[in-house]
């Protein structure tokens, strides 16, 4: 005869050993992608005020960083370029001697086995800061596609292992696939930012990458945060056009979308734990309102529990360290 309450779920929570044994979700450093900002110029890395602990790397400062990343067992890096010059069409993004191609080849020479992903988008290179070419005050979808295709080929030539278009133009995955295939890069995968929302959480990144739009906003091409069905259409369109992995971005405010993507499609799902999610944790910790390690690991665990196979996160290095210390 058992006594009330019959169900005692607390039994398995009693000791750290049992909690670890029955934990359903485990983070691995190998599932993290660490974002790197690379700036054209010499000298030391520049701290990014809106993202404490993160920097804009020069090619010189990148070398030591890469050694750290490899030592920590992080799965991959994703590169964002900050060019010396910007113009209306973002042409510096197509330069084979531009900052991203140079950074890619430097990293691949240093550590050939480290997976290098490049962000393919015009916003870091355009003077107006939009993700596409602007014609008569509007972001021109079809005029942007060939430029994205060319950028992807330039990155592949430099040695990028994966290209990741983040522009949200219609048809860009297909255009990039065609451009890569035509240039004999049939083996280079596309990790598409498929469900990318017009989010207020990108603020710190735009300061870091100097890529805030000079006029208007991105709501004419990035998704409305209110929409979920549309995210599934974006994902299936990208897969039809040849995407190899799909992404949901941001992550924390979109965990339902991550779960729907994982349940709805049989492809790898990547979630981008974006700059604002990182800086929010930093700000809380700075004010003594929370413990950085616990906040960050809780967020990353939630993203994985929601269904993400891979997580892009500015906390990758810290989290890798915390996980290896086995201290949760
Ligand atoms: C470029 C791009 C952005 C981010 C990644 N790629 C900025 C944007 O769309 O404004 C944001 C990443 C972050 O906030 O961490 N299109």
Automatic annotation (TrEMBL):
<keyword id="KW-0460">Magnesium</keyword>
<feature type="binding site">
    <location>
        <position position="123"/>
    </location>
    <ligand>
        <name>Zn(2+)</name>
    </ligand>
</feature>
<feature type="binding site">
    <location>
        <position position="234"/>
    </location>
    <ligand>
        <name>Mg(2+)</name>
    </ligand>
</feature>
<comment type="similarity">
    <text>Belongs to the ALAD family.</text>
</comment>
<dbReference type="InterPro" id="IPR013785">
    <property type="entry name" value="Aldolase_TIM"/>
</dbReference>
<dbReference type="Pfam" id="PF00490">
    <property type="entry name" value="ALAD"/>
</dbReference>
<feature type="binding site">
    <location>
        <position position="314"/>
    </location>
    <ligand>
        <name>5-aminolevulinate 2</name>
    </ligand>
</feature>
<feature type="binding site">
    <location>
        <position position="275"/>
    </location>
    <ligand>
        <name>5-aminolevulinate 2</name>
    </ligand>
</feature>
<keyword id="KW-0456">Lyase</keyword>
<keyword id="KW-0350">Heme biosynthesis</keyword>
<dbReference type="GO" id="GO:0006782">
    <property type="term" value="P:protoporphyrinogen IX biosynthetic process"/>
</dbReference>
<comment type="function">
    <text>Catalyzes an early step in the biosynthesis of tetrapyrroles. Binds two molecules of 5-aminolevulinate per subunit, each at a distinct site, and catalyzes their condensation to form porphobilinogen.</text>
</comment>
<dbReference type="GO" id="GO:0008270">
    <property type="term" value="F:zinc ion binding"/>
</dbReference>
<comment type="pathway">
    <text>Porphyrin-containing compound metabolism; protoporphyrin-IX biosynthesis; coproporphyrinogen-III from 5-aminolevulinate: step 1/4.</text>
</comment>
<protein>
    <recommendedName>
        <fullName>Delta-aminolevulinic acid dehydratase</fullName>
        <ecNumber>4.2.1.24</ecNumber>
    </recommendedName>
</protein>
<dbReference type="InterPro" id="IPR030656">
    <property type="entry name" value="ALAD_AS"/>
</dbReference>
<feature type="binding site">
    <location>
        <position position="206"/>
    </location>
    <ligand>
        <name>5-aminolevulinate 1</name>
    </ligand>
</feature>
<feature type="active site" description="Schiff-base intermediate with substrate">
    <location>
        <position position="196"/>
    </location>
</feature>
<feature type="binding site">
    <location>
        <position position="218"/>
    </location>
    <ligand>
        <name>5-aminolevulinate 1</name>
    </ligand>
</feature>
<dbReference type="InterPro" id="IPR001731">
    <property type="entry name" value="ALAD"/>
</dbReference>
<feature type="binding site">
    <location>
        <position position="131"/>
    </location>
    <ligand>
        <name>Zn(2+)</name>
    </ligand>
</feature>
<dbReference type="GO" id="GO:0005829">
    <property type="term" value="C:cytosol"/>
</dbReference>
<dbReference type="GO" id="GO:0004655">
    <property type="term" value="F:porphobilinogen synthase activity"/>
</dbReference>
<feature type="binding site">
    <location>
        <position position="121"/>
    </location>
    <ligand>
        <name>Zn(2+)</name>
    </ligand>
</feature>
<keyword id="KW-0627">Porphyrin biosynthesis</keyword>
<keyword id="KW-0479">Metal-binding</keyword>
<keyword id="KW-0862">Zinc</keyword>
<comment type="subunit">
    <text>Homooctamer.</text>
</comment>
<feature type="active site" description="Schiff-base intermediate with substrate">
    <location>
        <position position="249"/>
    </location>
</feature>
